[in-house]
Amino acid sequence: MTAIRIAVIGGGLGGCTLANGLLKHPHIEFDVFEGSSAFKEQGLAVGLATNAQSALKKIGSDVHQSLEAAGGVATASTRIIMELLKPVPKHQLHVDKKLERIEQGAELLTLHFADGSTAQYHAVVGSDGIHSTVRKTVLADHPDAIEPFFTGFWDVRTAVPIEVAKDAKIVDPANPSETGWVGDGGFILHQFINNGELVGCIAAAAADESYDGTQWRNPVTKEKLAKALGDRGEFGESMIKILLDQPEPFAFSQYESAKAPTYSKGPVCLMGDAAHAMTPWQGSGAGTSIEDAMTLEFLLGKVTSPSQIPAAFRAYDEIRRPRTQKVVESSREVGAAFCGKDREMGVDVQKLSAGLQRKWDHIWSLDMDQHLADTSAAFERFKDKA
Ligand SMILES: Cc1cc2nc3c(=O)[nH]c(=O)nc-3n(C[C@H](O)[C@H](O)[C@H](O)COP(=O)(O)OP(=O)(O)OC[C@H]3O[C@@H](n4cnc5c(N)ncnc54)[C@H](O)[C@@H]3O)c2cc1C
């Protein structure tokens, strides 16, 4: 079988999961190009729900074991990446390789990097995050869909050792449990990371007129946090103190990808945040990236010649785009509800409870076998048409 050369652009969770999965397919020769100086994740931690765990199992048992080795389902993200990359030969992993543009040739794509070097591949997978360069190629005919937009919410995050959280009384020492507090305009959450070694603390709020949503992040003060979160008594005071007790406390603007009309163009496709960056409210950015990686790895395993890649990427687009864009929308809706901004539910506890309790079903309950069967059928259809 002809060797098929694939470039994976971006070494975040999505790109690294795909790299791990592609090791199963000897006919795929791949390289991962990371623009920064190391393979690492932006986020504090990722909680991987049942859908993400099922997708990891489909990719291969080693990956699932990697997750356990990295500390369980809510894990410092960079640790997961290190586990995923362990089996990938070092010569296939390239750092300080920022893609600048893709040039389409008759048979090969030429990648131009910021350091002046070039490389040629049959196909490119853009897992280069919310400010994706690959997206500019895929959506060249849809310029309005290239840039992400501010959703009107911001958040402040940190992580502290469990003992610090207990001393500050934000975690009940007798009965430690992860909790979210819904409020009128603001939301507070804490979650356990690395099997409970750390407590991730997050405060989020709807932006008021003083917040600059054109900036990726803005300085945050005690007064701003207190105003956004309202009176939460001693607990709120402790949480604010913890959130501000970091070298550079910032409020991060929550952005979302514009709704893309396609995730692929010929032999180039998008995955993860490059395709569908979403707000963090349903904790599904990482999980949907892993599902993307599972689907792409499955399809690329079926491709027997470079000429079949556009059909594989069309199948990927047909199956993954509706699924992921629905998650983007529901995540935004959950955020509004958590911050007391849903018009119907407001801060009515019973309405919130009834309205929110089924909101995760469509994310968690994806039948991976059926999803891959649908993907396979779509690939056969597009392959026949080609
Ligand atoms: C602060 C923060 C907190 C988060 N918290 C959570 C959470 O709790 N739960 C959750 O599920 N998700 C969370 N997410 C989202 C989650 O991290 C992502 O949705 C998910 O990991 C998608 O990863 P990705 O690989 O698609 O993109 P990214 O992780 O963004 O990786 C993209 C990679 O591409 C590289 N890159 C960019 N441009 C280029 C280029 N031109 N050339 C080469 N390389 C390039 C970047 O350096 C980066 O390493 C969070 C994100 C952030 C920013």
Automatic annotation (TrEMBL):
<dbReference type="GO" id="GO:0016491">
    <property type="term" value="F:oxidoreductase activity"/>
</dbReference>
<dbReference type="InterPro" id="IPR002938">
    <property type="entry name" value="FAD-bd"/>
</dbReference>
<dbReference type="InterPro" id="IPR036188">
    <property type="entry name" value="FAD/NAD-bd_sf"/>
</dbReference>
<keyword id="KW-0285">Flavoprotein</keyword>
<feature type="domain" description="FAD-binding">
    <location>
        <begin position="119"/>
        <end position="330"/>
    </location>
</feature>
<dbReference type="Pfam" id="PF01494">
    <property type="entry name" value="FAD_binding_3"/>
</dbReference>
<dbReference type="InterPro" id="IPR051104">
    <property type="entry name" value="FAD_monoxygenase"/>
</dbReference>
<dbReference type="GO" id="GO:0044550">
    <property type="term" value="P:secondary metabolite biosynthetic process"/>
</dbReference>
<protein>
    <recommendedName>
        <fullName>FAD-binding domain-containing protein</fullName>
    </recommendedName>
</protein>
<dbReference type="GO" id="GO:0071949">
    <property type="term" value="F:FAD binding"/>
</dbReference>
<keyword id="KW-0560">Oxidoreductase</keyword>
<keyword id="KW-0274">FAD</keyword>
